[in-house]
Amino acid sequence: MITIPSFKIIGISVRTTNANNQAQIDINELWNQWYNDNIASRIPNTISNDLYNMYTEYETDENGYYTTILGYQVSTLASIPKGLIGKEIPKNKYKEFISTGKLPDCVVQTWETIWNLKFDRNYGADFDIYNPETMHPENAEVKTYLSIN
What we know:
This protein is of the alpha+beta class and about 150 residues long. It contains 2 helices and 8 strands; from the N terminus they run ββαββββαββ. The chain has an 8-stranded antiparallel β-sheet. The protein is globular.
């Protein structure tokens, strides 16, 4: 378990649910939009090139609706471009997981493991971090952080 200080991201979002594999469809479309619309070029005040896939605003738990935000960590939310969303995540305790292998399968497998192990989650904000240097489609390394109590 590690404590991560508060941070901010700006990106694009979708409201989704894990029911009937809807999240896989919606999140895949979000990634397509990210690349097709060159969203990265529209985000001001970025801190790094790491791409965050955040899960937040949980209705209940992993079985309810939640918001996924795909974006970059930023230094401020003072200037959020039209059509994008900004979110500040408070300091929290996290359990770290590392996915390795083919994208997106390795990350999906990590989340399936998380759901089956039933951690004491607080459902504040969970996120995956995709580092450009380790984001190879056939042999990726992705870090997932699960917010816990």
